User: Which sequence fits this backbone?
């Protein structure tokens, strides 16, 4: 674990019976990322997909992902030559930037291996944040404590690393969610407002559906052309979009991104998040003003909606 990943890491286990089938595990991480960013990295499905696999030999396939109270996340952990492990998480409580509670059921071959109650307490500032994760584990088919220690420990290291290269932009737009969603997910209107002040878009192909894409050039005020390629892997109407950002058509990926839309007293809270592929790309983006430029883009969306 590198120093900037987690300045404090602890795991404790306290078996509750003689067989060790019940245990309480605690994991702690200090993360060099703002509180709001860590919360998005912990809860946003697009971000969770980035850090969920505990090690390179494990592939995680998400079958469902619905991060809201009463929603659930279902995934398959795949390791070559071994049976798939099914993980079902159900969200019981979500208090933004404060706390989440979920249950977790692990099974393989139709046999339940373990159940757990997972509580995440998050705190921090605009510069740093802290996650304390408590897992109340009940092993059923076999003793799962060691696997939980290893899996959660590695996964939370990944989470810390992902959070430290994540950018989150938010704006409350004074318009109903239906209107804001319609301006975003309309192939005719999206190119009209996308991009910072003074930029325009030239579309080559656009298909705003799950599995679709948007191939376009962003043109700066001085005429500089920036080729872009967005690939959409999730579209949940009026709730969220998940997509990847590429440097030009079929170019290298530089970020996993999402946009979420939340009702807020008749207005719409828009959250735009990006997990950059490397820390270097994140720092480069911050250096050229990506935060300010992104906020300008959301400002253009608000002005566009207001003008309709």
Assistant:
């Amino acid at each position: 674990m590198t120093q900037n990943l987690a300045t404090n890491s602890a795991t404790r286990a306290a078996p509750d019976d003689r067989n060790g089938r019940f245990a309480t595990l605690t994991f702690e991480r200090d993360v060099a990322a703002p509180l709001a960013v860590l919360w998005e990295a912990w809860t946003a499905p697009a971000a969770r997909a980035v850090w969920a696999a505990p090690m390179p030999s494990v592939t995680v396939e998400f079958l469902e992902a619905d991060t809201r109270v009463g929603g659930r996340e279902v995934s398959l952990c795949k390791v070559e030559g071994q049976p798939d492990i099914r993980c079902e998480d159900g969200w019981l409580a979500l208090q933004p930037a404060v706390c989440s509670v979920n249950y977790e059921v692990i099974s393989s071959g139709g046999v339940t291996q373990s159940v757990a109650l997972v509580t995440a307490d998050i705190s921090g500032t605009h510069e740093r944040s802290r996650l304390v994760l408590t897992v109340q584990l009940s092993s059923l088919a076999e003793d799962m404590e060691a696997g939980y220690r290893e899996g959660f420990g590695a996964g939370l290291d990944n989470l810390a690393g992902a959070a430290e290269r994540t950018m989150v932009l938010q704006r409350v737009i004074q318009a109903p969610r239906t209107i804001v969603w319609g301006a975003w997910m309309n192939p005719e209107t999206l190119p009209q407002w996308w991009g910072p002040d003074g930029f325009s878009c030239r579309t080559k192909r656009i298909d705003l559906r799950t599995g679709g894409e948007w191939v376009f050039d962003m043109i700066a005020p001085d005429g500089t052309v920036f080729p872009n390629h967005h690939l959409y892997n999730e579209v949940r109407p009026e709730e969220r979009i998940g997509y990847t950002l590429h440097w030009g058509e079929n170019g290298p990926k530089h970020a996993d991104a999402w946009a979420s839309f939340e009702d807020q007293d008749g207005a719409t809270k828009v959250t735009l998040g990006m997990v950059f592929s490397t820390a270097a790309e994140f720092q480069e983006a911050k250096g050229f003003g990506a935060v300010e430029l992104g906020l300008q883009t959301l400002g253009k969306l608000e002005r566009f909606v207001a003008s309709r």
